[in-house]
Amino acid sequence: MKLRSLLPGVFLVLIFFSAALLSYIWTPFDVTLIDIKSRFQAPDTTHWLGTDHYGRDMLSMLMVGARTSIAVAIVAVGIGMLFGVPLGLAAAANRGRFLDEAIMRGNDLVFAFPALLIAIMITAVYGPGAVNAIIAIGIFNIPVFARLSRGAALSLWKRDFILAARAAGKNTTRISFEHILPNITNLLIVQGTIQFSLGILAEAGLSFVGLGAQPPIPSWGRMLADSQTLIMLEPRLALLPGLAILLTVLGLNLLGDGLRDWLDPRLRRER
Hints:
Layout: H1 6-22, H2 58-93, H3 98-111, H4 115-126, H5 130-154, H6 160-167, H7 172-208, H8 220-227, H9 236-263, H10 265-270
């Protein structure tokens, strides 16, 4: 099995997931603590990554920011899977019928509105916040999983084991969840890692424009937004959250590629 992408991906993802989980019980400093006397402090033995323009510890901010970004992405991808997969299976089971057309045209309608535009519409009514960012990203993920599930399921409906299940008297709903879903789970897992990385990017983008997590809760996108006017004075403030986003997304993409190679039996036979 080729592990050139899987192992580095697992390593990078574990680092940031561990930092996010650790931040629930411990951070070097309180991220809401403002210490003007310590602002722009360079990295030292007390503040390993230095401090920002409010004197807050950068390592603590990055740890809590990881928690925010990862939590938003996980829930948003979960929403996409929870609603998208059943819709895709239902569309495949009713191919060419009214339900199939209704689901696919609804997906096209959602695709016409990117996550940022959906977030703007939601926040215009309910105000900015992490919950609204989750809803916006989650809604955008629904048609992604619906299309993937439908496409993968359609190729299975004419297989012999599905015909045998029909001959045994099973209805389409039971066949979809007992026979189709287990056979497309590998695809869903790989797509989930890809959407997870896109979810982190989307959360960072929404926070950057002020539609995501609100102060005093740190997020990587908010840290980038706060540092943009100080980039010439202290580029470290933008570099650190930017690297965190880059490495997390890179790790998830490598993990997705590695899982695809590992879970696809055809690729295993080629190797």
